[in-house]
Amino acid sequence: MKILIIEDDSSLREIIERGLLSEGYVVETASCYAEANDKIAGYSYDCILLDIMLPDGNGLRLLEHIKSLKKSDHVIIISARDSLDDKVTGLDLGADDYIAKPFYMAELSARIKSVVRRGAGSISNRMTAGNMTLDLTARSVEVDGKPLTLLKKEYDILLYFMQRPGHIVDKAMLAESVWGDHIDTADNFDFVYAQVKNLRKRLDAAGASLTIKAVYGFGYKLAEVEKQ
């Protein structure tokens, strides 16, 4: 999953970033309203952590802007403990959750997983497609109940497609979502092809009923394995 942290306190921002990176998330950060606005305009995120007290703008106005774009990004407000009015206003504007400072990373991580699960219409830590099951907490995969070992990026790619059943995803979108927005500096997306190819081989070898299928001229999608 890809997360954007919008927080002007550099120490807190770094603590959250390190904590989420250690859990395997793709993490990007913004320290002010203007920087956050640029990132939101150019990229999509599974979850945005939004501090509403920003040095150059009101985070609640940024929340309004996010919702006006009709994007599916989940938003969790992070703010001072005594900001009850801001909490109510934020939830009314469409925020998915609110967490007061100070907080423990374990609680923040649980809140992130909760809002993403709710958005996917699931109340479980497990996702199933075909004969494959992903455990979001353990970051593990099973095919027909048997463990399948994947590398980190292979798991991230599979999760990305399982969260978007039937969607065709181009290489640029997949790269940006799994590797982060610094991918703009890449000369090409050959590494995406290589990772998808390796993932496809592992799924085929494990007897998965679904595979990552190339859609010529468009990108990739999760599709049923064609029967011979």
C-alpha-based Rg, rounded: 18 Å
Report the average pLDDT across residues.
Answer: 86
What is the assembly state of the chains in this entry? Answer: single chain
What is the H/E string? EHEHEEEHEHEHEEEEHHHEE
Q: Which sequence of strands runs across the widest sheet? A: 2-1-3-6-7
Largest sheet: 5 strands, parallel
The level of helicity is 40-55%
Number of helices: 8
Distance between the termini: 34 Å
Silhouette: elongated
Q: How many runs of DSSP E, i.e. beta strands? A: 13
Summarize the structure.
With 228 residues, this protein is of the alpha/beta class. The protein has helices at residues 10-22, 33-42, 59-68, 84-92, 105-119, 152-162, 171-179, 190-206; strands at 2-6, 26-30, 47-51, 53-54, 57-58, 74-80, 97-101, 126-129, 132-135, 140-143, 146-148, 210-215, 219-224.
Describe the structure.
By secondary structure, the protein is of the alpha/beta class. Helix content is 41%, strand content 25%. It is built from eight helices and 13 strands. Strands 2-1-3-6-7 form a five-stranded parallel beta sheet, with helices on both faces. Strands 8-9-10-11 form a four-stranded antiparallel beta sheet, with helices on one face. Strands 4-5 form a two-stranded antiparallel sheet. The protein starts with a strand and ends with a strand.
Q: How are the elements arranged and paired?
A:
Layout: E1 2-6, H1 10-22, E2 26-30, H2 33-42, E3 47-51, E4 53-54, E5 57-58, H3 59-68, E6 74-80, H4 84-92, E7 97-101, H5 105-119, E8 126-129, E9 132-135, E10 140-143, E11 146-148, H6 152-162, H7 171-179, H8 190-206, E12 210-215, E13 219-224
Parallel strand pairs: 1-2, 1-3, 3-6, 6-7
Antiparallel strand pairs: 4-5, 8-9, 9-10, 10-11, 12-13
Helix pairs in contact: 6-7, 6-8
